[in-house]
Design goal:
heterodimer; A: mainly alpha; 0% strand; B: mainly alpha; 13 helices; 67% helix
Chain lengths: 215, 254
Amino acid sequence: MKTDDFIDFLARESSPPPGSQAGGPRFAVGVIAGLVASSALMAGLLGLRPDLAQVIHQPMFWVRLAFPVAVALAALHLTTRLARPGARVGGGAWVSLALPIAIAWGLAGVVLAEVAPDARGALMLGHTWKVCSTLIAVLSLPSIVAVFWAVRGMAPVRLRLAGAAAGLLAGAMAAIAYCLHCPEMAPPFWSLWYLLGMLIAGGLGALAGPRFLRW
Amino acid sequence: MGQKKMFHAPCNQVPTCGELKVMDAVPYFVPLSRPPGVAWAWITLRATSGRGERNRSESVAMTSEAVREHAPEGPSAIELELRHCFVLGLGGDAASYRQFLEALACHLRAYLRRRLPRALEDVEDILQETLLAIHNARHTYRAGEPVTAWVHAITRYKLMDFFRAHARREALHDPIGDDDLFVASDAEPADARRDVGQLLGTLPDRHRVPIELVKLQGLSITEAARCSGLSESAVKVGIHRGLKALAARIRGGV
């Protein structure tokens, strides 16, 4: 087919198809579906923590929950930028991603400074450090699928970076779900192992991006 | 009808792609003079390593450089023309959209011929593939952002796809200095080697029928829906998915 004919062919119908005008609705569906799927996997695989009803009255429960929520919001912003060709990712996006991590680490530092030196190791390792990051990474798998589905509806041109951002978003969503199971409340623990779990998910996303986000 | 004509008017006044005016216009991206060796190393690296995102910082640097140098002038004439036609097209004005694609095809052709001096026989194929990619991604353009930057990102992505697929052959290529899509325009098409028309025939019926009715026979969405017994949104979605499937087929066949 000649290019002129091909242009004729493309131009016959120019308005975007229904439901694809904006990335917003698609991302909303992807994020909600991912959160539901990761939470269901958490409930089925691990179960809610038995004392959840009491724990939600502790401020630290909400501080801990705020950490993955803040990372998820920053990663969502980054992902939606990277899903559009030519959209610039400003320094603000990276700062908003680094900020919750810096605050969590600052909080962990304050907590660690207040306890006796020989108790610090126990605070950082808690009782579940061996499984925490792995579980978050496992819980992120359905979320990764959901977020990748949303990104695939757009047109990412930097596949590895877009995959990493999508994976990080999925990891943060999994960490939100994991908060409802995890018995550890000490900031030195979750600022370390939650972050590691989210980064593993981000790494998975970076590996999967060039293959599954291609268009 | 009269109203529609008025909408067309600004687009029709803009010089078409073959004329000098467009070619002389200040591009949105101003190319930085780069030693050819650097560009060559860059292309070779990109083509052989398969990493798609390396050059982004470079592109951002170029953009900010361009903005700094040309800040008082604002968007270029090409940007304004393309954006105007594209936005009208997205609103359903097929004539403006056609004009957008035609002007774009000229720029893309010149750009691809510069970038692929030893693979000129592939240019028309990549051009059609890129046009299809731009068409399929048209919902990812956000109003108010530069269309040229958006097109540039997609074109570069498709070009890198081609480089990856032809890494070995490409490594022997001459270096090409600038990476600016909008410095020149080439209206003279060559023949595409691939026949998109034949590829269309390989699509499943639910995609092919809406495409044939609307894109080839020129029926409106409403007529096509009546004709095929599908709902209007099913026709639109069928076209959208079908063209995506077509893009995947083209990619697989390169």
